[in-house]
Amino acid sequence: MPSRRRTLLKVIILGDSGVGKTSLMNQYVNKKFSNQYKATIGADFLTKEVQFEDRLFTLQIWDTAGQERFQSLGVAFYRGADCCVLVYDVNSMKSFDNLNNWREEFLIQASPSDPENFPFVVIGNKIDVDGGNSRVVSEKKARAWCASKGNIPYYETSAKEGINVEEAFQCIATDALKSGEEEEIYLPDTIDVGSSNQPRSSGCEC
Hints:
The chain is α/β, with parallel strands linked by helices. The chain is 27% helix and 25% strand. It has a single domain, classed as Rossmann fold. It is built from 6 helices and 7 strands, in the order βαββαβααβαβαβ. Strands 1, 2, 3, 4, 5, 6 and 7 form a 7-stranded mixed beta sheet that branches. The longest helix has 14 residues, at 165-178. The chain starts with a strand and ends in a 19-residue tail after the last strand. Keywords: GTP-binding, Lipoprotein, Membrane, Methylation, Nucleotide-binding, Prenylation, Protein transport, Transport. It is found in: Cell membrane. Protein transport. Probably involved in vesicular traffic.
């Protein structure tokens, strides 16, 4: 019988500390949000299986620390990425201004084979804060920046409310697929996940 093919797609989330990178990832993968802020130390990742047409993909989403003292960890985490997500807080002009630094840092550290066409996605997070009244970065300004960098896809989200998070990550997964630097994992049709000595069916009904 043919084996099911699963492809690993590596996604890196970058942005200043506190813009909501971890919250976005948790909302997408676990549908959960926490009001308790805890800085990411070094890097962390979550995985989520997604299906496109008849193929199964594992999205491996890396959440890296926004603090500068951890940026030296970058090379190992950035290498082999299929898509890079740049996140800023629409209520913080500084976090928006730093997008360019994060983008340049990624291209230097990751050294993608085709930097001109490497897929980025920009997310403006925290649109729910204060009903939008404390917002300082306009959608027009953000879209203009994305256009100047080669028409980067742009999404405005609320990790807290779950607004546009699913849509943004669908775009991220699609762009990661287009990058072509994918690693394939072959899975047998039957996977013995139990330690029981009971005889197991040879058919997989998953």
